[in-house]
Specification:
Layout: H1 2-46, H2 52-66, H3 73-82, H4 98-121, H5 124-135, H6 139-154, H7 158-169
Helix pairs in contact: 1-2, 1-4, 2-4, 3-7, 4-5, 4-6, 5-6
Length: 174
């Protein structure tokens, strides 16, 4: 009887975790899309909708939202291990309008912060790593370093590479 109860509990936990994965990815996507929409509103207000930097930043945020399920600690660590100084990482274009460039930079920095929060506080890996790091008083440094890495990642074309690695490693069944 105890094994049946234990089995039911394990199945319940696995089911709940499965739904949590879907929910947390949906929440991240919505946060990123809200940033994208705010950037669009700012571009319309400043009449810079045709700015190449705006189009690239919008595409970038769309790509991050669309591939949120591939934004995992192992895949990001793999791409970061390859290094930003190697071919394949290119910076995003800059806007000629300094005020609008600040808005783009702000949106991309916020997306890095959201992704860090998602990875460190909403994933199983993050929930295990952060408390362990806190035990040795590295929690803040870990969060700060992770956010710094993610800002570099977000400000480059690395998210496309993360999506490519994720799709290659875990092809979706349609």
């Amino acid at each position: 009887m105890i094994w049946l109860a234990l089995g039911i509990m394990m199945v319940s936990l696995a089911t709940a975790y499965g739904w949590w994965v879907v929910l947390r990815t949906t929440l991240l996507r919505q946060d990123i899309l809200d940033l994208r929409d705010g950037l669009f509103d700012k571009a319309r207000e400043m009449d810079v909708l045709d700015d190449p930097a705006h189009r690239r930043a919008r595409d970038h945020l769309n790509m991050i939202a669309g591939n949120a399920d591939w934004m995992t600690i192992p895949i990001i660590a793999f791409v970061l291990h390859r290094g930003f100084d190697k071919p394949g990482f290119s910076p995003l274009p800059q806007s000629d309008n300094p005020e609008f460039q600040r808005a783009i930079d702000s949106a991309l920095e916020q997306s890095a912060h959201m992704l860090a929060r998602h990875l460190l506080r909403r994933t199983f890996t993050g929930v295990v790593i952060v408390p362990l790091a806190s035990l040795v008083r590295l929690g803040r440094e870990l969060e700060s370093q992770t956010e710094s890495w993610l800002q570099q990642l977000i400000m480059s074309d690395a998210p496309q590479q993360i999506a490519a690695v994720g799709r290659a490693a875990y092809p979706r069944v349609v």
